[in-house]
Every structure is written in structure tokens, then in C-alpha cells.
Amino acid sequence: MTDPRIAGAGVTQFGKHPERTGRDLFAEAGLEALDQSGVDPDDVDALYYGNFMGELAEHQGHQGPLMAEAIGVDAPATRLEAACASAGAAVREAVKTLHNGEAEVIIVGGAERMTNIGTAAATDALAIAADDLYEIRAGMTFPGAYALMARAYFAEYGGSHEDLAHIAVKNHEHALVNEHAQIQKEITLEDALEAPTIASPLGLYDSCPITDGAAAAVLTTEGYAAEHDLDAPVAISGTGQGGDNLALQDRPHLARTPAADKAADEAYADAGIEAGDVDVAEVHDCFTIAEVLAIESLGLFDVGEGIDAAAEGTTSRHGDLPVNLSGGLKAKGHPVGATGVAQLATIAWVLDGSHPRADAVPEGSVGVAHNAGGTVASTTVHVLEVKE
Amino acid sequence: MTETTRNGEYDDWLDSVEDGKAYYVRCDEGHGWLPPRRVCPSCGSRDLSEEPLPDSGEIATHTTITVATPQFEDDAPYVTAIADFGPVSITGLVRGVDPEDVAMEDVVGIEVGERETTGERAVVFRPR
């Protein structure tokens, strides 16, 4: 079994594009990925496509074939939905299918149109990733859910809103050179701390924005890449996925994300690496506290110590272990169904040296992408390595 | 589904809270859940029974939500909390106390109230 290669990737500008249809967003990303890969569209064996709220935002289900058509591909196309981890789940299915030898070329991607329905309706749509009966009907919103986890974390391990603000400041700074990012604006610690509260203890700058956008990548077997002389130096060497109780109330611990622990353990074992081998990570920071929980679950920091990482500079582009060089969901934006593949593209570009923040890890050869759904009831982790 | 269609065991459970006979579902290993459950997600046991919910719980975590969904627009700002009742934890709205005074480990009782925005039923915690 050889590791699938990333032959090309494409990402739209993430931001407010309320009038752009999902199919047009995905067509832009998918065609860019195909063009960059040099793969003949006729060779594509399948499309695995992530999307979360298409029914609510665009009154559009059955998006798989629609999106294959949009990129000029005549192949079986399936939409995967795992809330904000939909695209990560699409990558995982593609990797398994390529491993199995059932395909040689698969396009993975995702798209989400969100701003066309306005902030209130988008907040409502995002909330359906939680338990409708036992959480939504008790007033839980997504910021509210992560606020519950943040307060539980502070009570158990210490930490403060100021520690979280350092994460927002870092990720905004990282995004300054990312032309795909929704927010390219430097913020200060004071800006973050003085922003309006949305769900205490979290404020406006603890939350990712609402975003329209798409991302796609062309994955091939190692054999196909060699046979067609593709420039595809980065391989997906490990894949993992974990699950948890859907509702926070049913979990034994409110400040940990065991679904991500399981995904990381599986992905690291699959790749034959350990957490200490990781040079760079893109993690699912839909809220600042989520970055803390992610880097602990990935084993990059001990439980209870991830809260200090940004304040100490360890996870900045100048630190020993840069996290979210793209700006993360926080500043790059979070078109839900596209995020997992946008993370994959970022890591691939950082490792092959073409990302504007690649200079943060000039010798980097191992990266991870952590994509979480809901309050981390679904998580995928992928390990990417430079092979040649 | 219309607004008047009940959500089976969920609404039955809310009825039980409203009638002062709140219960939870317990497996033979003592794991607690809210209905409907046919199997314990923790241990796989299908030997489940309805047990009386302890009279009070403790706030395990809480948040004051100022940016609400349309269904809670008129409720905001409001407090949502997870309360630990021992064998089971429950999510609800905290009422009867200033949001700024809600604290971890506060002891609360459970009742059924109405959402201000829609009039629909909701789990409510009040300080004991």
C-alpha cells in the first residue's frame, strides 16, 4: 500500500460572496485544482464532496452530481456530511478508496454558501449540527457550545479570556499575507478583549466569521503520479477519524475532545509517526478555545497546557510549532463544507514551499490537518509528508 | 412535521419534568441518559430502566448568550447551562438569577418553562 499524492489544489477567496452560487464557487476551486494537477479530467474516477447546509442556504440537496458537472467531470459523485468536518470526511473516504486500489484519481473538495441568508439564519443553520431536542431547544448556539467548553476548561485547568485573545491575535497576523483569507487585518490584544461578548466568556474575536467559499484537491495513487510524471511531492501518509456523543451533556469531560484524540492516534499510527515528528499544523479553530482543545488532542501539548501556547509564542510563525499559518478558520474564514480540504491545501503548500508562510518551517516535512464537526463529535486528522 | 406533532419520548420526558416526576434512563452498569434510548452508548447494555431524577443538580458549566438564533431572539441575553444531576447531565436555561451571578457548582432544580420568543417548552433550571 502506497500513500496517495496531492497532485493539485484550488481554493477560492474566502469571504462574503452572497450572490455567488455554490456550484460556481466549487467550479472555481475544482478547475484550479485540476489545472494545477495536470490530470486529464477523463481520468477522474470519483468526486467526494463536502457540504453541510446546502438545503438551508440554497434549497439544494443532491449536490454531488451537480458539483461533478460544474467541474466538467463525468464520474460518480457523492456528498459527505459531517457538519464542519464534511470535507475532512471526504478526504478520508478518498484516501481509503485509493488505498484499496479501487480508484487512481479522486477529486476531493467542498463548498458552502452562507452569507446569502444573513447572520441570524446562518447561526440557526449552523446550530443544527448540535442535538436539536436536548441542546438547541435549551438555547444552545455554536458560540454558546464552545463557550460552555471554554468555561469548563478554565475551571479545570486554569486560563483566561486573555489567553484565548492571544490565539486570535496570532491567527489574524498569520492571515495578513494569505490572499484567500476573509479577514486580512491585524488586531491587538486590546481589540480582542474589548470586542462585544457573543456568548460569555467568548467575544466577537474568539469566533470565526461566516464565510462563502470552496476548496478542492486532486488526489492520485503514487503509481498514477509516477506514470504521468506529475509534480506531486506531498503524500497523505496517515488518516484517522474519531467520534463522540453528539450532545455535550452526555460526555464525561466537557473540556476535552476524545474524538480528536482517537483520530490523531489512528492517523499517526497509519503514518508511522509520533506527535513529536509534526512540524506544522492546521487545526479547526472555529473558536479560539477550539485551537487549544485541538493541539492538546493532537498530542502537540499536554492536556491543560495548550492554553499557554499562543501567549508564549510557541504556535506563532516564529515559534517552534506553527499552528494555523493560513490564519485558521478564525481569520481565513470557515465555509463549513470546504474547510477540511482548504486545510489540506494549506499544509501541502507549506510543505512544498509555495505557501506565503512556508518560510516559517523551511525544513518542515510533516504536517497535520485537524478538521472537527459540531462540538467535536466528528473529527478527522490527516498526516501529510514530503516524499520527494 | 407540524408544530403540534410531539417528539415522542422527548415530550413525554418534558411532561414528567412538568409533573414533578422527572426521570432518567439508566443501564445496569449505572450510566445515565435522557430518552429515547434503546441501548447504553457507553457499555452497550440493553437492560435499561427509568429511574427518578435526583431532586437537584450542580451547574457544571454555563454561558450567557447575547447573539441568539431567531428562535431565541427575544430571550437574549439568556443563560444556558449544563447541570450535573449525578448519573445524568442536562442542558437548560437558567432563570431566577441575574446572569452575572450564575456560578459554577450552583445548586439548581429543574422545571419546564417557555421560550419568550416562541412560547415553546424548554428545560429551565432555578437556583435552590
Rg of chain B, Cα atoms, Å: 15 Å
**At the third CATH level, what is the topology name of chain A?**
Peroxisomal Thiolase, Chain A, domain 1
Compute the number of helices of chain B: 1
Instruction: Give the number of domains of chain B.
Output: 2
Largest sheet properties of chain A: 5 strands, mixed
Helix content of chain B: under 10%
The total of beta strands of chain B comes to 8
Large-scale geometry of chain A: globular
End-to-end CA span of chain B: 37 Å
The order of strands across the largest sheet of chain B is: 4-5-6-8-7
The main β sheet of chain B shows up as:
5 strands, mixed, barrel
Question: Helices, strands, pairings?
Answer:
The complex is a heterodimer of chains A (388) and B (128).
Chain A: E1 5-11, H1 22-37, E2 46-50, H2 54-58, H3 63-70, E3 77-80, H4 86-100, E4 105-112, H5 118-127, H6 142-157, H7 161-174, H8 189-194, E5 197-199, E6 202-203, E7 213-220, H9 222-227, E8 234-243, H10 258-271, E9 280-282, H11 288-297, H12 309-312, H13 328-332, H14 339-352, E10 366-373, E11 378-386
Parallel strand pairs in A: 2-3, 2-4, 9-10
Antiparallel strand pairs in A: 1-7, 4-7, 5-6, 8-11, 10-11
Helix pairs in contact in A: 7-11
Chain B: H1 8-18, E1 23-27, E2 32-33, E3 48-52, E4 57-65, E5 78-84, E6 89-94, E7 107-114, E8 121-127
Parallel strand pairs in B: 6-8
Antiparallel strand pairs in B: 1-2, 1-3, 4-5, 4-7, 5-6, 7-8
